[in-house]
């Protein structure tokens, strides 16, 4: 698959051949959905917790004698049916993460890239570079190119000026190639890859 390379000024900078084994697959929604679920589950904090009856700071002594009071039979005052008692079946601290095979994760990334390529939503830059590091000028360049909602993926090292200029632009995310992931690809409309990012992806996913 051949795609045109452009610069931030909108000028033509040649073309590049994308590997069909990575960008030319028929997208499988089931794989992509499994990967997104895996990512979102892994990032959950899981720190929600309530106190059970054994954790309530209240005596476990029987409230009153079993018979003769005319009231219901009760033991500890820390049980769930009393105000101030422990909660029955409440949430506990735990990890929500689950396993997903490494090969399946790599395949899901290929299918996410292929989905963007199939929809014509991949843009290739020669490099992600900012002359002055100013958000205003970079925002203008992006608007000219129609990039109002995009994920920009560069090589292993991000240029500091470009990163500084892009971080205040709404709906624009910038990642090094090692941080590329299915969820971030899908949550933005367009995917912007540099030549360095494409070379690194093809070396990693072949």
Describe the structure in brief:
The chain has 206 residues and is α/β, with parallel strands linked by helices.
CATH superfamily of the largest domain: Ribosomal protein L4/L1
Name of the top-level CATH class of the largest domain? Alpha Beta
What about the largest sheet?
6 strands, mixed
Order of helices and strands: EEHHHEHEHEHEH
Structural class: alpha/beta
Task: Give the low-confidence spans.
Answer: none
Which architecture of the largest domain would the CATH scheme give at its second level?
A: 3-Layer(aba) Sandwich
**Total number of strands:** 6
Our estimate of the beta-strand percent is 5-15%
Shape: elongated
C-alpha Rg (nearest Å): 27 Å
pLDDT averaged residue by residue: 92
Tally of contiguous helical segments: 7
Distance between the termini: 16 Å
Helical fraction equals 25-40%
Number of domains: 2
**CATH topology heading of the largest domain:** Ribosomal Protein L4, Chain: A
List the helices and strands and how they pair.
Layout: E1 2-6, E2 12-17, H1 20-23, H2 29-43, H3 102-118, E3 122-125, H4 135-145, E4 150-154, H5 160-166, E5 172-176, H6 182-187, E6 190-194, H7 195-205
Parallel strand pairs: 1-3, 3-6, 4-5, 4-6
Antiparallel strand pairs: 1-2
Helix pairs in contact: 2-3, 4-5
């Amino acid at each position: 698959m051949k795609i045109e390379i452009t610069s931030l000024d909108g000028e033509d900078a040649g073309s590049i051949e994308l590997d069909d084994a990575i960008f030319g697959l028929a997208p499988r929604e089931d794989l992509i959905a499994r990967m997104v679920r895996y990512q979102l589950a892994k990032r959950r904090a899981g720190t929600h917790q309530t106190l059970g009856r054994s954790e309530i700071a209240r005596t476990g002594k029987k409230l009153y004698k079993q018979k003769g009071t005319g009231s219901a039979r009760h033991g500890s005052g820390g049980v769930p049916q009393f105000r101030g008692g422990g909660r029955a079946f409440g949430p506990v601290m735990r990890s929500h993460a689950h396993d997903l095979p490494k090969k399946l994760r790599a395949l899901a990334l290929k299918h996410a890239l292929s989905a963007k390529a199939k929809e014509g939503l991949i843009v290739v830059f020669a490099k992600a570079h900012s002359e002055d590091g100013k958000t205003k000028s970079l925002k203008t360049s992006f608007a000219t190119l129609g990039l109002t909602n995009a994920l920009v993926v560069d090589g292993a090292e991000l240029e500091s000026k470009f990163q500084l200029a892009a971080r205040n632009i709404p709906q624009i995310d910038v990642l090094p190639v090692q941080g590329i992931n299915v969820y971030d690809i899908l949550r933005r409309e367009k995917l912007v890859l540099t030549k360095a990012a494409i070379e690194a992806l093809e070396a990693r996913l072949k």
